[in-house]
Amino acid sequence: MEKIDSTENPQLQKVLEKYDIVIGLEVHCQLATKSKIFSSSANSYGNAPNSNIDETCLGLPGALPVLNEECVNLALRMALALKSEIQPVSVFARKNYFYPDLPKGYQITQYDKPICLGGELFLASGKRIGIERIQLEEDAGKNIHVGSTSFVDYNRSGVGLIEIVGCPDISSPEEASQYLKKLHSLVVHLGISDGDMERGNFRADANVSIKPKGSKKLGNRCEIKNVNSFKYIEKAICFEVLRQYDLIEAGGQVHMETRGFDSEKNMTFSQRTKETAKDYRYFP
């Protein structure tokens, strides 16, 4: 698979003559703990489906979460590496949505009071990419589709994650890949995660938009979900930039939405309209 280079890609160069590319990455990193973030069930890959579960993972009546101290320690380790400001008080929230791999009907995450705020990461070029926040949360289960039948494996449900929310300081597909590689090397070297991208233990959502060159006003963004490859993040962003450019140049409008990435066709595709914080009905 060829590398995407904005300086050598005629199509991207055409976009850059009139528009600025604006990219922000949200990275989900599965924490390398023996048990899950709010229960004593094992955080272990490869076991029989639905064998690493308990009442808390499934949200059964009366089951209460108990925070895994090691998840907090690993989040703080990431904060120190990124020069993020550790908050003396942080609060967990319910993020409410309904999907088969989310048995409780909500995800325990953080909203207005995350564990860490701010921070920075420098690319090899010296460019600074700001970090908006680092938050602790739990992973969802896994949907498995076989023909017309779907199964759900809840072994991953409740595994601890940190979400590293980057500022929209990235301006090309290759910068996005460089940023991910730098973050990946940090989490693996520091023992925060094994960083296994094939298993989804390190994956990214890319928020992509374009705006007229030099404009202060940002364009409508689309979020590409769960990309788990450095090359695929470049491919996905490149396609999305060109899609938005063609749409705007033809007199159309980019609508905020969530999109997936088809790695075989090297294209993004619409999944659903973009939710806002109000849609998730967050509460402590």
Explain what this protein looks like in three dimensions.
By secondary structure, the chain is of the alpha+beta class. Helices cover 24% and strands 31% of the residues. The chain contains 6 helices and 14 strands. The chain has helices at 10-18, 55-58, 69-81, 173-189, 230-249, 277-280, and strands at residues 19-30, 85-86, 92-96, 106-110, 116-117, 120-122, 128-138, 142-146, 149-153, 160-166, 202-212, 222-227, 257-262, 267-273. The strands form 3 sheets. Strands 1, 2, 5, 6, 7, 10, 11, 12, 13 and 14 form a 10-stranded mixed sheet that branches. A two-stranded antiparallel ribbon has the order 3-4. A hairpin with a 5-residue loop joins strand 6 (120-122) and strand 7. The longest helix has 20 residues, at 230-249. The radius of gyration is 19 Å and the shape is globular. The relative contact order is 0.19.
Quick take:
The protein is of the alpha+beta class and 284 residues long. It has helices at 10-18, 55-58, 69-81, 173-189, 230-249, 277-280, and strands spanning 19-30, 85-86, 92-96, 106-110, 116-117, 120-122, 128-138, 142-146, 149-153, 160-166, 202-212, 222-227, 257-262, 267-273.
Short key terms for the protein model shown above:
284 residues; alpha+beta; two-stranded antiparallel sheet; 14 strands; globular
Low-confidence stretches: none
State the distance separating the first and last CA atoms: 45 Å
Shape: globular
Strand content: 25-35%
Q: Could you tell me the radius of gyration in angstroms?
A: 19 Å
**How many beta-strand elements?**
14
**Helix proportion:** 10-25%
Mean pLDDT: 93
Quickly count the helices. 6
Structural class: alpha+beta
- How do the helices and strands follow one another from N- to C-terminus? HEHHEEEEEEEEEHEEHEEH
The major beta sheet can be summarized as: 10 strands, mixed
